[in-house]
Amino acid sequence: MEGAELAGKVLSTWLALVLGLILLPSAFGVSLGISEIYMRILVKTLEWATIRIEKGVPKESGLKNSASVGIIQRDESPMEKGLSGLRGRDFELSDVFYFSKKGLEAIVEDEVTQRFSSEELVSWNLLTRTNINFHYISLRLTMVWVLGVLVRYCVLLPLRFTLAFIGISLLVIGTTLVGQLPDSSLKNWLSELVHLTCCRICVRALSGTIHYHNKQYRPQKGGICVANHTSPIDVLILTTDGCYAMVGQVHGGLMGIIQRAMVKACPHVWFERSEMKDRHLVTKRLKEHIADKKKLPILIFPEGTCINNTSVMMFKKGSFEIGGTIHPVAIKYNPQFGDAFWNSSKYNMVSYLLRMMTSWAIVCDVWYMPPMTREEGEDAVQFANRVKSAIAVQGGLTELPWDGGLKRAKVKDTFKEEQQKNYSKMIVGNGSL
Amino acid sequence: MGAAHSASEEVRELVGKTGFSSDQIEQLHRRFKQLSGDQPTIRKENFNNVPDLELNPIRSKIIRAFFDNRNLRKGSSGLADEINFEDFLTIMSYFRPIDTTMDEEQVQLCRKEKLRFLFHMYDSDSDGRITLEEYRNVVEELLSGNPHIEKESARSIADGAMMEAASVCVGQMEPDQVYEGITFDDFLKIWQGIDIETKMHVRFLNMETIALCH
């Protein structure tokens, strides 16, 4: 009896604290500053840890250079320059030199595959999962690490789990209730309130610290918002600061319940799996959506898959054919506090969420950028590349022309033939053939 | 390359044999594991996972070079089925830049090794000569991607190049003299005095300790 009473009291105080300190402020969009204090303590601890590691490591073994710099320095000169020099006439034995060198560079380090695994850190952030290069340094550091594990798994995880649970339930219940109302501006206002509150709760569930830059360029109604994709959390991060209409496939299970509830309160665009294959149907529905200026801006991730946040891959042209104003947004995570990249071949959704909830925090920067429209004489692909460059420059990411679909598929033949055509043009063009 | 002590002995051995530094070897080992899917050996199929390589017109020759017994120093002909990490490093070492601190004799030796690697790429039947057929084969592969170039053009390019090589190696030929093929010595003669160093090396970065900063 006593045990149950005690447990009951603990639970109720716990819930009261959660309600007072987190839920209510989220509803009003106010921050009590608790997460700022947490972040400051965290940063100080990590700095201390880094200094200890630096002191503790002997000179010869040293710390490994981050793999993002690479093993080799690639020869970036274009094919013409690479082949010239030794070239006396049309075709030289030396051309094979150039291609074998390029081939070897590709084998040693290819730009594409490394984008589908998590970014490596320069210094350890006291999480076991990033500890590939670092060895035992000192007792104090290990103690801090153990303390970190305890804090993360025993204090933060239950708290975050509770918050996530409350957030999702509120979302489903709230949107279902709002969905009962007839269409009116009250309904829109209420649905915005519900969406924003629940997203803020979910973001706090991950200890997210988000900095929004250039809020004046926030996507307007009737536009399309385009962003680089790193994880499903991107959606949460963007919806915390504004309401969007989401586009995607209808899922089953928990996701399906959430989707069905959300669409009652405000018009998201969910497609059946079979409809996704029909590009014209998709384009038509999206065009209809943006034609209605009162509807919320659509949120699209043109890369089509999750990339590890060090680069931006090819933007699929489909989203850029719809027309309308494109509002680009760049999202950059700070990997020091937690790696947000979802490697879907390695982790399923549940283990991914678990990893997120046991990281220190999710820290990211969001830059809103001035709207762009397709210019005269520009086709969808060129427009897509222009937007991609803008996002890459703003977010400090490298730009790659490769298709994110390479995660699972092979290179298209058309791509392969490009390079060979260039080379053969060089030889035959110069010669008298 | 798991736990501490036996691994560092292996690494030291490899440093001696191939000339890479121990940091570079560890990085390359990680790449090896990535390519092989954590297996101890690599087969030809594993190279299909490198998207950048798909663009290369002579990719099949490059992949073949990795398994060529002559490059692996395991024989005078034939192909191995699979290679282990040491073999991988042996092939990589052909592309190491020529060290400026080496003496003249060693520099010549390195050059010869690199040219020999290239010779093997052309000489697919391992008979020690690059015949007209083999040369044509390489030119065709290089031009294979362009559907507008017919086989005839590729052949004439190869024939022209072969004649020029013959004139360098053998001098003026009698009208009924048949040029059998470029031997390795002829190959060396063609490249004499020409600096191939920058064409045939990959710049491996030196992993140095860097100061950590937030």
TrEMBL record, chain A:
Give the UniProt entry's GO cellular component terms: endoplasmic reticulum membrane
TM stretches of this protein: 12-34, 159-179
Q: Coiled coil where? A: none
Under the heading SUPFAM superfamilies, the entry gives: Glycerol-3-phosphate (1)-acyltransferase
Bilayer topology annotation: Multi-pass membrane protein
Q: Which pathway, per its entry? A: Glycerolipid metabolism; triacylglycerol biosynthesis; Phospholipid metabolism; CDP-diacylglycerol biosynthesis; CDP-diacylglycerol from sn-glycerol 3-phosphate: step 1/3; Lipid metabolism
Please give the Gene Ontology molecular function terms for this protein: glycerol-3-phosphate O-acyltransferase activity
Q: Which GO terms describe its biological process?
A: phospholipid biosynthetic process; triglyceride biosynthetic process
Chief place of localization: endoplasmic reticulum
Location in the cell = Endoplasmic reticulum membrane
User: Which part of the chain is the Phospholipid/glycerol acyltransferase domain?
Assistant: 223-334
Question: Could you confirm whether the keyword Endoplasmic reticulum appears in this record?
Answer: yes
Pfam families in the record:
Acyltransferase (PF01553)
Q: Which UniProt keywords apply?
A: Acyltransferase, Endoplasmic reticulum, Lipid biosynthesis, Lipid metabolism, Membrane, Phospholipid biosynthesis, Phospholipid metabolism, Transferase, Transmembrane, Transmembrane helix
PANTHER family per the UniProt record, alphabetical: GLYCEROL-3-PHOSPHATE ACYLTRANSFERASE 3, PHOSPHOLIPID ACYLTRANSFERASE
Similarity comment text for this entry: Belongs to the 1-acyl-sn-glycerol-3-phosphate acyltransferase family.
Protein name (record): Glycerol-3-phosphate acyltransferase 3
Instruction: Identify the species of origin.
Output: Neomonachus schauinslandi (Hawaiian monk seal)
Gene that produces this protein:
GPAT3
Automatic annotation (TrEMBL), chain B:
Q: What is this protein called?
A: Calcineurin B homologous protein 3
All residue ranges annotated as the EF-hand domain in the record: 110-145
Instruction: Give the GO molecular function terms.
Output: calcium ion binding; protein kinase inhibitor activity
Spell out where the chain crosses the membrane. Answer: none
Q: Can you supply one Gene Ontology CC term for this chain's record?
A: nucleus
Q: How does it assemble?
A: Monomer. Homodimer; disulfide-linked. Interacts with SLC9A1/NHE1; the interaction enables an optimal Na(+)/H(+) exchange activity.
Highest classification ranks of the organism? Eukaryota, Metazoa, Chordata, Craniata, Vertebrata
User: What membrane topology does the annotation report for this chain?
Assistant: Lipid-anchor
Give the protein's biological function: Functions as an integral cofactor in cell pH regulation by controlling plasma membrane-type Na(+)/H(+) exchange activity. Promotes the maturation, transport, cell surface stability and exchange activity of SLC9A1/NHE1 at the plasma membrane. Promotes the induction of hematopoietic stem cell differentiation toward megakaryocytic lineage. Essential for the coupling of ERK cascade activation with the expression of ETS family genes in megakaryocytic differentiation. Also involved in granulocytic differentiation in a ERK-dependent manner. Inhibits the phosphatase activity of calcineurin.
Q: Which UniProt keywords apply?
A: Calcium, Cell membrane, Cell projection, Cytoplasm, Differentiation, Lipoprotein, Membrane, Metal-binding, Myristate, Nucleus, Protein kinase inhibitor
Where is this gene product found? Cell projection, Lamellipodium; Cell projection, Ruffle membrane; Cytoplasm; Membrane
Q: Which domain of life is it from?
A: Eukaryota
Q: Which family does it belong to?
A: Belongs to the calcineurin regulatory subunit family. CHP subfamily.
InterPro entries from the xrefs?
CHP3 (IPR052490), EF-hand-dom_pair (IPR011992), EF_Hand_1_Ca_BS (IPR018247), EF_hand_dom (IPR002048)
Gene name for this UniProt entry: TESC
Keyword presence, Membrane:
yes
Q: Name one GO biological process term.
A: cell differentiation
The record lists the organism as: Neomonachus schauinslandi (Hawaiian monk seal)
Q: Does the keyword Lipoprotein apply?
A: yes
